Amino acid sequence: MARLTGVVIPDLNVKVEEETKRRKQRKSLRIFGQEITIHDMEGKNPHFVTRKIFEQSDIAIDQNRFFIPKSEVLWGLLSDREKTLVEGRRGLEVMVMDSRGGKYSLKLKKWRSLNQIVLNGGWRKLVEDNGLKAEVDCADIWSFRVNSMLCFAFNVKRQL
Prior knowledge:
By secondary structure, this protein is α+β, with helices and mostly antiparallel strands. It contains five helices and eleven strands. The strands form three sheets. It has a seven-stranded mixed sheet. The protein has a two-stranded antiparallel sheet with strand order 1-2.
């Protein structure tokens, strides 16, 4: 701080350094103009997984599943135990946060026949709640962890 004729002038460098530290510590996603903060959910280790334009099969009511493209990125983030569960019959329970901040309990599974990782077991509700449209909506998909639980954030953007 500097004092100039009785007026206290704060040291701006200290404030800039403090703000930079806060920004680095706080991982957040800007979703439809609203900031949903992974840090506020006590989330750790955010990783960008992929971006995908929703296809008709992703939003079809009778399908109730979402194929995760470039699943090798996601596969690399899983522990050995999680990989075993994903390959198993029941899958791995995960939490998915949508663009509005809604939370959904879904299953992450690997379909061996297609060698694809999918989210299902409640996917239809997320599609309906968000009014997702094929070939119009695009999602940036982030993974993070709350405690040790694997979670996903879907940052959905409507392409005009």
